[in-house]
Amino acid sequence: MTCNVSFCQQCDPLDPSVCEQCEDHFVLLNSDCNQCEAGFYIFNGQCITEKLNTLYIIIGVSIGVIFSVIAIISIFCYFKKPKQGIENEPLLQEIDE
């Protein structure tokens, strides 16, 4: 049976006017294969706006920078902390009588 849907890779075996899987670079919408509109791209079978992708990149980079700054400050504070131990205690103690 021939598939009647343009750009369809696999149609329903019982109904050739219903697409089940589209060719690459096309998205399945209401049993038809469509290209995404300008400003959108296909991701996991859906048309996703490019602005959303840019927003996720900005958020990811911001979180990475924040954690890096926190790590650097933590390391700096750790090494600047005064060491307390036997080295800093006086060897002899004076006894008041």
From TrEMBL:
<keyword id="KW-1133">Transmembrane helix</keyword>
<feature type="transmembrane region" description="Helical">
    <location>
        <begin position="55"/>
        <end position="79"/>
    </location>
</feature>
<keyword id="KW-0472">Membrane</keyword>
<dbReference type="InterPro" id="IPR009030">
    <property type="entry name" value="Growth_fac_rcpt_cys_sf"/>
</dbReference>
<protein>
    <submittedName>
        <fullName>Cysteine-rich membrane protein 2</fullName>
    </submittedName>
</protein>
<keyword id="KW-0812">Transmembrane</keyword>
